[in-house]
Write a structure and sequence with these properties.
InterPro entries: Nudix_hydrolase, NUDIX_hydrolase-like_dom_sf, NUDIX_hydrolase_dom
CATH class: Alpha Beta
Distance between the termini: 37 Å
Protein name: 8-oxo-dGTP pyrophosphatase MutT (NUDIX family)
Pfam family, one: NUDIX
Number of helices: 5
Strand content: 35-45%
Shape: globular
Order of helices and strands: EEEEHEEHEHHH
Organism: Nonomuraea africana
Number of strands: 7
CATH superfamily: Nucleoside Triphosphate Pyrophosphohydrolase
Largest sheet: 7 strands, mixed
Family: Belongs to the Nudix hydrolase family.
CATH architecture: Alpha-Beta Complex
Amino acid sequence: MRPSVRGVLLDDDERLVVFRRTVPGRRLYWSVPGGHVEPGDASLEHTLHRELLEELGAVVSAVTPLTTLSYAYQGAVKTQHVYGCRLVSMDPALRHGPEWDDPTRGVYEVERLRLDPAEITSRHLVPEALGAYLAEHITSLPRLIHRSK
């Protein structure tokens, strides 16, 4: 199974940028942006920048490795490399890719959450391993993800 990356993205107001996902036939859930490593990606960090641009139209700075999560998924082990980063800009007009081209993939609504454990634990955040990591570390994120100078 191809590895993937996730971006724990903080805005200027120290809020976490997430997707509220409404997918036909699935329970409502939240997720942070990210995706699979593609053959043309030069590095995990390159994958992160590409995915954030595709999904949010976002440019980020202060990319910081936070953790690597591995968990059972569809009979295999899925590995996700989680990076913290700071939002520099976000232009929804720049979003592109299968998320936006295929309406059967559901709705991606951007929300911004306060850095409070209850903001995470009160939502069905997937993958669950990431939700557990965020619930434990949410208040530490501003210290872990330094601002660019």
